[in-house]
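Section handout 9: paired folding examples.
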Amino acid sequence: MQPGPIDTDMNPGDSEFGQQMLGFIPLGRYGEVEEISGAVAFLAGPDASYITGTTLNIDGGAAA
C-alpha cells in the first residue's frame, strides 16, 4: 500500500507545508486516517485473499 499525504498530528493538512502540497493532489485535500484504515481492513480480510504483489495507491490521485 502506498498512501499519499494523510492528515495526522505529525503531518497536519492545515500546516504551511500541507497547503503547499495541495497543489500536487488532484482531489485538493489531504486524506483522512479512516480512508487508509478502510483499505487496510479490506486487504487484511477474506475479500482480498487472492491479491498478491500489487501496490494500492491511496493518494487522492497524486500518482495518476
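Moving on to protein 2 of 2.
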Amino acid sequence: MREPLLVGLDIGTTATKAAVFDGGGRLLAAATAAYPVHRPRPGWAEQDPQDWRDATAQVLRELGRSCDLTGVAALGLVSQVNTHAFVDASHGALGPAIVWQDQRCAAVAAELDARFSAADRERIWGGPFTIDASYLVSRAAWFAEHGAWARTRWVLLPKDLVVADLTGQVTTDPVSAVGLTGPDGYLGEAVELVPGLGERLPPLAEPAAVVGRIGSGRWGLPAGTPVVAGTMDAWGNLYGSGAVGVGDGMLVCGTSEIAAVVSDRIVPTFGVIAFPPRDGLIVHAGPTQAGGDALRWWAQAQGRSIAAVLADAATAPPGAGGVLFLPHLAGQRAPLWDADVRASFLGVSADTTGAELARAVLEGVAMSAREAFDAVAAAAGVPVRGVAVSGGGARSDLWCQIKADVLGRPLGRLAVADSAVLGAALLGGVGVGVYPSMAAAAAAAVRVEREFAPSPDGAALDELYDVYRAAYQALKPVHAALAQTRN
C-alpha cells in the first residue's frame, strides 16, 4: 500500500510556499511563488489578495508536475496573521489587504489600548496584552471609517481566504485570531469595541479539523482532497520544529523573527503573547517586526544580492568594529510594541567598512531576536530545553552562529528549513488520522540537521547587547518626536 503523502502550504509575507512530504517528514517536492508588499504611504504595508490565490494555484500545480499527487491524504495550510482582507459575500476583496507590518492604525490602537486597565487585561486576555496597530480590532475600527465597511461580509486571514476558495467554506481557527479568542470562543469585550465586527468574523474550527474538500482539480490537487482549517505560521513553525512539549523553544528566521517557548504556566511578562491553553500547554510567543526583512532592505539599499551581503559580513569581526544596528525599520513588535521607533546605525565612523555595516545588520537582528526570546522565556517560567531554528535566514551558517552567540544558547537547525510548511502538512496528517496527535507527528517527521553552540565571541556580543537595549531607551523620545513629523 502506498505511503500517504501530505501537502503543506504556507502563505507568507513575501511568498507562498508548498511542499509534499511522506509520513516520515521526507521532502519529496517543493515550490515557491513570490509576490510584493506594496507601501503606498510611509508606514503602510499592503498586499493584493489575488496574489495569494494566484500563488497558491501556481505552487500546487508545480508540485503536481514534480510529484505524483494521486491519493494525497490531506492539504494543511498556515499563513501570516494580523494580515487582514476585507471581503464581500462572494469573497471579493474590497481593497488591498492590510499587512501585519502596517502602522496606519497606530493612533486608533493607542486610543483603544488606553481604555483598559491591568485588571481589565487580566480578565479579558488572561494577562498583559497590548492593542497595537496590527490587532484586528484596530484594523476594523479604521476600515469602518475609511473603507467599504457596509459591504464587508467577512474579515479573513490569507489562509482563510484560500480555504474559502478551495472548499467554499468560510472558517478560521482560534489560534490565528490573535487576541480575539478564549476558551469559549470569541472575546465579547474585545469584539464589541467595533460595532458589527462580530458578525463579520468567520466561524471557528480547530486547526486540524477537516473543514472541506477541494471542489475541483483546477488547483493542482485531486478533487475531493481533504483540507484542514490550518493555523497561523508561528504555530505551523512550532509543529514543524518539534516544539510540542514543556520547555521546547523555537526561533524562526523569516521576514520577521519569531521566538517561542512552550510551557504549562504563565508568568505575566510585558510584551509577550500568551496563547490560550491547548492540551494543557501554553505557547508564549514574541514576533519582531523585521528579521530577514532587514537583510533584504540592506541588500536592496546597497544594490547587491543577499548572498553578496552575507559574504561581506563574514569578513568583518564580531562586534562589527563597534557599529550597532537597531533593526526597527517599521516600528517594533515584541517585546517593545513601539510603532514610532525606527532603524538606525550607531558608531559609524570614517573608517567603517561596508562589511562591518553588513555584519552589524545581522547582529542587530540577532539582538532583537534575543530581546524577544528572553521575554518569552521569562513568561514561560520553565527551563528551556532546546531551541530549534528554521526559516530562510537559518540557511546561513554565519547568521545561525551569530544568533547562538548573541542568545548565549545552542541552536539546532532543522533539516526542513521551511518548518511552517512541514507543520502545515503535519496538521493535515493529524486531521485525517495519519498521526494520532501533533506530538506524534513531530516525533515522526522533525529532525535536526546541525547544532550551533555559542562561541567565545559571545562575550563581546553580550556587552554590545547591553548597549543595544540602552540605545533604544535613549533614542525613544527622539523617535517619538520624529513620528510627529510623519503624521
